[in-house]
DNA sequence: TTGAAAGCGCTAACAT
DNA sequence: ATGTTAGCGCTTTCAA
């Protein structure tokens, strides 16, 4: 085939020409602004012309004109967490869409936070939702300077300059550790995933475990573990005699449990193990896995908050707290 | 606090003013186009001014001017599949970034494909990567008309108008079913997830199972199942006497296995079960789960393909095939 | 009820 | 070696 296989993309000017009206009229009709401004006959003409040409708006042009885009940005790291989070993201996407925003998940794991924030800022999103640890003060400043209206962080403590949804990673560790200690465990391990992007969360969870152990004659040992069977098996074989484990999350916890079983160490007899996320897998594991459940809250509320912050920027502050509680099962 | 908490975002004109040069010069310096055009002294001045003002480019303006954005769009559904895919996405994001593109995961599960394609088209992405079943001919046409250079589909058969990475969902079912039949199973179940967005894949996998059963005196029954313990348990209790199961993927397969075990039905004694994805969880399950492994291939190659297609659009065609093979374990 | 026109921030062809 | 300027597609004020 030679030449362009597709007709040049139609602009609103093309639509206007075909319909025999001005570009202004086209804009009013297609966006339904100022109802009653354009007569029904003209509306129909414009609609037909747009349809015929296969007209599709140009987000960049609109954003340029409006001074801001309708994008809401979120690091894609979040999406990889599991079904719980990804279902919730679906709801969030839907709720934001109803407010006229487009949720966009953006990668960039592992890179320099300020560099990542820069790429985000170039997209001039209306809002950014991100884990606090990835949002250095410099990054927040950069986003605001670039005109991002709403920066919403999730994390253990308020991020300066951003609204913060309090999500205490350390509380995950604290809850699990308190339970293990109550069960009589005194030598606690905390699994520290080797996978990129997880280290900041792991450190906070470890801190929570340490806090629970404080002044209680309990020893806490961080234990690195990659998400890999052979490594888990090697760890189980040379298990350093610890009697309680907080597994970072359910996946790592389950991996370790199987490895321990494989080398003949009883769970919970010899070692108690607790996870986090309360996946369905935790419930159906054998033994069923004690886990910290995270209540993500209604996505619609977060969407509404985002909308409010974009419409009328207010003082940054603490917004809401993600609640969590322990579900005790047979692994502890 | 009153007034704007942040300085107005600087434009390239501001940078030019501060540096005492023209906007053109700023553009040349910051983009490093035409090296040698600007003297070192001027370059330094411009850089310093940009730094001082916290200048950040404006992607929308650049896209408007260039006629296309540097966005590569992919449905976020993909991301929810699991660790295998999400790690791969990380690599893809990285590889695309090195070509100057920004990978964006976009939600929109469940909505009308053409409506979704419309929202995508408005962003004028350079490329769209999507599962074929979501790309109707109308959707592909819409994207092309909107100027999207590269539409790359994944699916069982070539999508008209798009390059296609052949990914035969039916082959997943065929491989698993052939194995089950070889093991002497004659009454096969195929789990059909109730979760939104998964039905198109499930139908194709079911078709693969049917193909394997063809002319072999094997009965195939689709069995709906939501990802939920109670539902799995109810299914197991009223198990319709089928002796082989293709579980859609590892997660559903594992869920069913546990439910069957719970009601005293032996796996693989009474029922053989196979999954797909070959998650680590399949390997550590008890019994270890037979699963179809999917070889996603190098993300760098796909990134290079995307780049090539954007630079010099060519005839759509079949690009590459995602390979898969069965890993036989104890569940069959 | 509709049209004309300015201008969002950027790049690149052309001029100096 | 650097500057001037047109124009990408859109919305919205102002004028008719």
UniProtKB/TrEMBL annotation, chains A, B:
Pfam families noted in UniProt: LacI (PF00356), Peripla_BP_3 (PF13377)
UniProt-listed InterPro entries: HTH_LacI, LacI/GalR-like_sensor, Lambda_DNA-bd_dom_sf, Peripla_BP_I
Gene3D superfamilies on file: 3.40.50.2300, lambda repressor-like DNA-binding domains
Keyword Transcription regulation: yes
Transcription found in the keyword field: yes
Transmembrane residue ranges: none
Domain HTH lacI-type residue range list: 10-66
Entry keywords, A to Z: DNA-binding, Transcription, Transcription regulation
Superkingdom of the source species: Bacteria
Protein name: LacI family transcriptional regulator
